[in-house]
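The records we work with from here on pair a chain with its fold. Taken together, the tokens spell out the fold as the letters spell out the chain. The record below shows the convention in full.
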Amino acid sequence: MKIAMIGSGYVGLVSGACFADFGHEVVCVDKDEQKIADLDNNIMPIFEPGLDDLVKRNVEAERLSFSTDLADSVKDCDAIFIAVGTPSRRGDGHADLSYVYAASEEIADSITKRTVIITKSTVPVGTGDEVELIMEKKQPRDRFSVASNPEFLREGAAIRDFKRPDRIVIGTEDDWAKDVMSEIYRPLFLNESPILFTGRRTAELIKYAANAFLATKITFINEIADLCEKVGADVQEVSRGIGLDNRIGSKFLHAGPGYGGSCFPKDTLALMKTAQDNDSPVRIVEAVVQVNDQRKRAMGRKVIHALGGDARGKKVALLGLTFKPNTDDMRDAPSITIAQTLIDGGAQVTAYDPEGMKLAKDILPDVEMAESSYTAAKEADAVVIVTEWDAFRALDLKKLAQVMKGNVLVDLRNIYNPTEVAQTGMLYTSVGRNQ
């Protein structure tokens, strides 16, 4: 089938490349001329393992192309996916849908045959209805159908998630649109991936509900970690003890500095706003957002406490800046608040991240970026593991201790054994465990 992907960011590029790998003819469209020029030269706008090879293979097979011309790209398509950004709107936290609606206007001006328009972007309930109204102003009703197909991609594992999904959710009541979407995803039926056809509004809400629930699990175990520290329990054993219950599951029960990234922060805010607008507040989600915001600064204070309660004149090295490993995404990363808390406390902060420093330089101008973990730790009073990159899981702790001025290691991801760290003479602090 011929597919256009409007938006060549994280979701659009990964989805478009994977659809092309299934054998479809895909064009990824973006208004950013430099991004398209880079993609034509196989320069990726994001770091995602395996993406450059996937894109290159499908471009060479002439199944995948890139363009800045939306009108020309969509005119003969069977399906058009809208995968533009929906950032939090300033002032009220609702999703900014201006890019979705602008794309819809251009699509309405340009389609020349019966087409399914699919919202792939994460959008509040009712967005598909608005897209439909925009289309109806310029196209006869039998020329198009609007569907919802939310994405469930984890940064760092997006290609695997797309090709081996837990589920495919498609929101439409139109039989023709169901047939088109079934054909698009037919290669995944061979893997017996469950496909859920549901109402469009239901599909839109499924995405927000899923992310809010996962954010709740993260926040829950973080609060349990705080309680563990007070009562002398071990949060990792608590996590294992409750995660073995099949009703709960073990995923997203790892204590740490709080959630960040491109999805959870903005999606929980958008769900809160939608609920408030419909006079049906989601108070659990409201508490999750509040607790998570507080936790990031609390982790900065935890580092200061490990330094004896005073960070003035101290040098602190942060290992890891991105919100999670295997991505360069700095959006709402806990490291931002942690670094600022330390700087506010009078500390000098250095940092190293395998992929995130290019973006971090603009976000954290007062943080000195280093070329390696040990360079960042040189003459440091404390080293803080913020992101659990594989590169930080097997540090030479003796070497680390030798290059440091002080002897404080704060492990916000619990990737080290307290006994092993103690043998190096370092003072070890982790999250929710007895040290």
Observations:
- The chain has a mean pLDDT of 96.
